[in-house]
Amino acid sequence: MKGKIILPAITALVLLLNACNGCSNTSQNAATEPALDFESINVIDSIDAIFYALPSPEEIITYINDNKVVFNASLMHNYKEAKLYEGYEKKAIACGVYFADLAYISAFNKSDFSGEYLSTIDYLLKELNINPNFTKEQQKRIINASVVPDSIYAVSRELYDTVISYLQEYDQGKTLSLLSAGAFVESLYITTSLHNDFDKQKEAIDRIAEQKLLFEDIFTMVNTYQTDAALNDLINDLNVLKKSYDDLNVNFGGGEANLQPNGTLHIESKNDITLSEENYFIFSDNIKDFRTRMIRQ
């Protein structure tokens, strides 16, 4: 795809702390749904989504240590509630939520949680008739990953990439939109919950504000299906979040590419961010309210 947006390494970290065996029809109304213009959506240009422009595991660990960010399991959605969801839309959003939780687990290499969340995602994918080619060997790798820091990260991202590729291949834009919305909101919920000291964590909070670019893509994706009554609540909540994002006062500039000594390319953004403490916490409260409604059965 063209026009890939490359964000600074901290961007995906904020998202994290803040990621075919035949075709099955996902909806009886699929034939009448509007088509999603995949080529125009930057969020899926590199089929990363919640793992978007993810930094190396070493960068993640460094950020966690430097900023004294601690793992808080209570922020994740209870995997035991997955089987309580009814209806295709609710299950698709929940699947995105659990993918974000798996990304959070990956950032901290918490292998003691990975098995349950991987199994939960596998269950929801089956409920959604999504059949990516993800082998038992790959599942075993993520469940057993506990020593190598990037093990859970690598397999989690591999699974997500496989699912997104499948949805693109079979033009299941509505499912991709719902899954992306669930993953994005859950990521923001985790991130804003972990970053509540405005003065000491201002740099990371600025990166949260910069996710407005990613949000705008997801907003566009979901609004493609605005005539679908089942998405009314989601679209209304996204409109509230859009207003809250606008109030953060983020003006996007260009980016400067710098080649690092290790050969990697680091993009330094030149965005103008003038968010106030009051607007940030209003935004954070809106995210919490949105997430509460989103995970309700």
Instruction: Estimate percent helicity.
Output: 40-55%
Task: Name the structural class.
Answer: mainly alpha
> What's the domain count?
1
Q: From N to C, what is the helix and strand string?
A: HHHHHHHHHHEEEEH
Rg (CA only)? 18 Å
Anisotropy-based shape: globular
Largest sheet: 2 strands, antiparallel
How many strands?
A: 4
Portion in beta strands? under 5%
**Kindly, what is the distance between the CA atoms of the first and last residues, rounded to a whole number of angstroms?**
36 Å
The number of helical runs is: 11
Strand order of the largest sheet: 1-4
What are the segments in which pLDDT stays under 50 over at least 5 consecutive residues? 1-31, 42-57
Q: What value does the average pLDDT take? A: 73
Describe this structure in words.
By secondary structure, the chain is mainly alpha-helical. It has helices spanning 9-17, 57-66, 88-107, 111-127, 136-144, 151-169, 173-194, 202-210, 212-223, 232-246, 277-294, and strands spanning 250-251, 255-259, 265-269, 272-273. It has a two-stranded antiparallel ribbon. Strands 2-3 form a two-stranded antiparallel sheet. The radius of gyration is 18 Å and the shape is globular. Mean pLDDT is 73; it is low at 1-31 and 42-57.
Index terms:
297 residues; mainly alpha; two-stranded antiparallel sheet; two-stranded antiparallel ribbon; 11 helices; 54% helix; 5% strand; disordered N terminus
What's the short version?
With 297 residues, the chain is mainly α. The chain has one domain (9-294).
Break the fold down into its secondary structure elements and pairings:
Elements: H1 9-17, H2 57-66, H3 88-107, H4 111-127, H5 136-144, H6 151-169, H7 173-194, H8 202-210, H9 212-223, H10 232-246, E1 250-251, E2 255-259, E3 265-269, E4 272-273, H11 277-294
Antiparallel strand pairs: 1-4, 2-3
